[in-house]
Amino acid sequence: AQSVAQPEDQVNVAEGNPLTVKCTYSVSGNPYLFWYVQYPNRGLQFLLKYITGDNLVKGSYGFEAEFNKSQTSFHLKKPSALVSDSALYFCAVRAEGFNDMRFGAGTRLTVKP
Amino acid sequence: GAGVSQSPRYKVAKRGQDVALRCDPISGHVSLFWYQQALGQGPEFLTYFQNEAQLDKSGLPSDRFFAERPEGSVSTLKIQRTQQEDSAVYLCASSYRGQGGTEAFFGQGTRLTVV
Hints:
The complex is a heterodimer.
Chain A: E1 2-5, E2 10-14, E3 19-21, E4 24-27, E5 31-38, E6 44-50, E7 56-58, E8 64-68, E9 73-78, E10 87-95, E11 102-103, E12 107-112
Parallel strand pairs in A: 2-12
Antiparallel strand pairs in A: 1-4, 3-9, 5-6, 5-10, 7-8, 8-9, 10-11, 10-12
Chain B: E1 5-7, E2 10-13, E3 19-24, E4 31-37, E5 44-50, E6 53-56, E7 65-68, E8 75-79, E9 88-95, E10 105-106, E11 110-114
Parallel strand pairs in B: 2-11
Antiparallel strand pairs in B: 1-3, 3-8, 4-5, 4-9, 5-6, 7-8, 9-10, 9-11
């Protein structure tokens, strides 16, 4: 079985401040982890992924995520938030040997000027 | 093409009507996925194709849902005798391979409203 939890429905930060969007996962075996962003009336856009290797992965638009195996977490981070980062963020996991990605319920990020 | 294309973008169906949703994946992508996204929720897996073979249909909610990809490219998701609970955004995604750490690229989705 594979599942993802995003414990926060909503995250609010001020522009220029660091942001964190949390994600925890549960899989049998090795996980492949993904972050996607969804803007209004748009499809999901891929941000970054963890496959293996360095626990800190860097992606699009200055986002990065840290894989923590002991805490089964894959939190999304950005050192300095922009108003344009305001969107819906989804964490997803695919277990090794499986086809489907399981998504979390999403976290709405609002960055205020 | 440049991205995954889905049509129509919006569909209103009367309860009991059949609908067909189309997905044009990125050229050359072997794997194709369908997801259902209810309002305020994350996408839920419906089915997976590798070329023309439907390898996983475990997420299809009932036998009213049917998907095909006859030539390994364009895919159609068909819903028969639509019900109000079928109202959702249907997302199609493709990737050059389906398993492992390969990311999927999503279309804009088809918003289905059953009235």
